[in-house]
Design a protein that fits this description.
The complex is a heterodimer of chains A (351) and B (314). Chain A has 351 residues and is mostly helical. Chain A has 13 helices and 2 strands; from the N terminus they run βαααααααααααααβ. Classes of the chains: A mainly alpha (351), B mainly alpha (314). Chains A and B meet through helix 5, helix 6, helix 11 and helix 13 of A and helix 5, helix 11 and helix 13 of B.
């Protein structure tokens, strides 16, 4: 007989080992699908790896795709640290994209435009995240459901814009007018799509880590999440901490949208996010809610996504494998996390 | 005003409401059973998509629509069991698992569909269910052709609502479901197996979500597209809250949403589109969020929702 037994502390190497075990389990499980599709497992994963991380151009493409997931991953990680269950990063990202597209279409000097785009996008995302947080603090409304449902509200608002006032009158396509050329984020390496926003995302991660690990607000966020009673007893205004966390989380998710508008698409369309907000949850869980872990986790998912397209062309295995990998990785990580709370112990058969 | 009135009382309009409400009613009842037992199932969006795909595939390969429905229901139940395994047996956080189940199921649906049917310019379609008029009842003016000349699955949905209410409120199993959702510790003391009951409720819920998916690809659209569910699962989550976790109210909420949706489609088609149709699609979500703020004082949600139960932790 085996039984689960509560664990009081976890060894440090767990933080690194658990996501790696989860990812390994995911790749093994998903290799079954590759086999069903009639391709060689090693070959398929090999193409995936080389097409996403094999040369410098591939790496830049992977980083471009990782950037929005770094932001949404940070947004989710910080929110979950305070046990503010923000499932709404997708809607906050879309709000950020719309707001930055509004600002980016106004003619002004490039640097100013980019700063204001970031400001507008972060503000829009923060305001969207403030809704479920306020409802929870003031009315005790469950934040999981309210933040999730807001995603649909924001999505339809975006659709109303691009099929209404923003609609391209010339082609009739439901896409917004492009932002000003001067507002396009500068490309850092000639011949690639590596834009300024990617660097901002890479810098944002250590900044968030510093905020969580080394500042008073970060301390309050952690205590509020771990033990709200103790936080209250210790004189922390838990409600205010939740609202601050929501603002921060929403702003980060909003920045994900800003990067997609300013650095990749230069306009807004209905499929500007292929679910980066939900991927943020996968990223945050793989990172064990540590902002520093968000970067490798986001790069992993991005590599799977870019690699899957090449794998599909080379082997005929549908590129949707990346979606399966993403879902499996989240579930595998959740199971792996059990080992931080429990250990499996062998117990003698009872007579 | 009279023009609007005439539109509303057209037979086609009423029939459209019933058809739109049917998959939502199945999905909403499914989510309701799960939540009444204390398990939020955010996997609903993905479970509906995977069931829709599996049912369509089975029907198109075998030529039997009812086999397709059966497969969709079994796949839904299986995914419900997966969600229950994570959230009930392992006690993992329900919202994150639900998102995981949705990501996994939708990914699998896309992958398998592309693998089986390849990339075609025109998506393959099937000869879907045909309306089956009910003798006598279908002769009632207006209501008859709208409600009693429908697909068999529609009649099943109409029967499912009182049946769900009966099961939930009038059977010992329904009592157990409500007990484990309200106070699992008390249920455990009374000799009700919390784990078994929750498993059963989440699996039943998944099966109903599977029926919803089956309706979409085998009666409503007769084809599978990647956007075939397009947020209907999230609508069901909203409708359960809006319907206060009650089968009758939830079904009523589904009808209300279907009315607004059908109206929106009519207005789009008739070119009366001064108001963007997205405004209508947003309504159920906004209403639900506002309703949650008002309802929170009455505490109508199952008390143990989102809370895993471990027997040892007394």
């Amino acid at each position: 007989m085996f039984r689960l037994e509560a664990r009081t502390s976890t060894p440090a190497w767990f933080n690194l080992a658990l996501p790696l075990i989860a990812i390994a389990a995911t790749l093994i499980l998903c290799s079954g699908l590759i086999a069903i599709a009639g391709a060689g497992v090693i070959e398929a994963y090999g193409v995936m790896l080389s097409a996403s991380l094999g040369d410098s151009y591939a790496i830049t493409e992977t980083l471009v795709r990782a950037a929005p997931m770094i932001f949404t991953g940070l947004a989710v990680a910080i929110a979950f640290r305070a046990k503010f269950w923000n499932i709404g990063a997708e809607g906050q990202l879309l709000a950020g994209a719309v707001a930055s597209c509004f600002v980016g279409a106004i003619p002004m000097p490039g640097t100013l435009a980019m700063l204001l785009m970031a400001l507008a996008g972060a503000t829009a995302g923060a305001l969207v995240a403030l809704v479920p947080a306020t409802l929870r603090v003031k009315f005790k409304v469950d934040d999981v459901v309210s933040s999730l449902l807001l995603n649909s509200v924001i999505y339809y608002a975006l659709m109303a814009l691009i099929e209404g006032p923003w609609k391209d009158t010339f082609s009739g396509y439901p896409i917004s007018p492009p932002i000003e050329d001067s507002a396009n984020f500068p490309v850092l390496i000639e011949g690639t799509r590596l834009h300024l926003g990617v660097i901002v995302a890479l810098i944002a991660a250590p900044l968030c880590w510093f905020l969580i690990a080394r500042t008073t607000l970060g301390f309050r966020i952690r205590v509020t999440g771990e033990n709200p009673e103790a936080a209250r007893y210790g004189g922390i205004n838990v409600q205010r901490v939740l609202l601050s966390t929501a603002l921060l989380s929403g702003a980060l998710a909003g920045l994900a949208g800003v990067g997609e508008v300013g650095g990749v698409h230069f306009q807004v369309m209905s499929d500007i996010s292929p679910g980066y907000g939900y991927s943020g949850i996968v990223v945050a869980m793989l990172a064990r809610l540590n902002p520093l872990g968000v970067v490798p986790a986001a790069i992993f998912l991005a590599a799977v996504m870019t690699g899957a397209e090449a794998m599909s062309r080379a082997t005929g295995v549908p590129a949707f494998l990346s979606d399966v990998i993403q879902g499996t990785a989240l579930l595998a990580m959740l199971v792996a996390l059990l080992f931080t709370a429990y250990r499996i112990r062998r117990v003698g058969a009872q007579t | 005003m009279s023009a609007v009135f005439e539109q509303i009382f057209q037979v086609g309009f009423l029939a459209a409401i019933v058809r739109i409400a049917t998959p939502l009613a199945f999905a909403t009842l499914g989510e309701m059973f799960s939540e009444r037992a204390g398990v939020l199932n955010l996997g609903i969006e993905g479970i509906m998509l995977l069931s829709a795909m599996a049912g369509f595939t089975a029907a198109s390969l075998s030529g039997s629509l009812w086999l397709g429905v059966l497969v969709a229901v079994l796949v839904g139940a299986l995914m419900g069991a997966l969600h229950a395994l994570f959230t009930v047996a392992l006690g993992l956080s329900q919202h994150v698992c639900g998102i995981g189940v949705t990501l996994f199921s939708s990914g699998l649906a896309y992958f398998l569909y592309r693998l089986i049917f390849g990339q075609q310019s025109v998506p393959p379609s099937i000869d879907g269910f045909k309306p089956v008029p009910i003798p006598l009842l279908s002769d009632i003016p207006i209501l008859g052709p709208a409600v009693f000349n429908q697909f068999t699955l529609v009649y099943m949905a109409i029967i499912a609502v009182p049946l769900a209410a009966f099961v939930l409120y009038r059977t010992p199993w329904g009592l157990s479901v409500r007990m484990v959702g309200e106070n699992p510790r008390a249920a455990d003391s009374a000799g009700v197996s919390v784990m078994a009951t929750r498993f059963q409720a989440v699996i039943l819920g998944g099966a109903l979500m599977g029926l919803a998916g089956a309706f979409l690809t085998m009666a409503q659209f007769n084809a599978f597209t990647f956007g075939v569910v397009s947020g209907r699962g999230w609508v069901a989550i909203a409708l359960v809250v809006f319907g206060r976790w009650d089968p009758w109210r939830s079904a009523g909420a589904a009808l209300l949403f279907a009315f607004v949706d059908a109206l929106q489609l009519r207005m789009q088609a008739s070119g009366l589109g001064h108001i963007p149709y997205e405004a209508f699609l947003m309504l159920p979500f906004i209403f639900t969020i506002v309703a949650m703020a008002f309802m929170s004082r009455n505490a109508v949600a199952p008390s143990a929702l989102l809370k895993p139960f471990r027997r040892e932790e007394r």
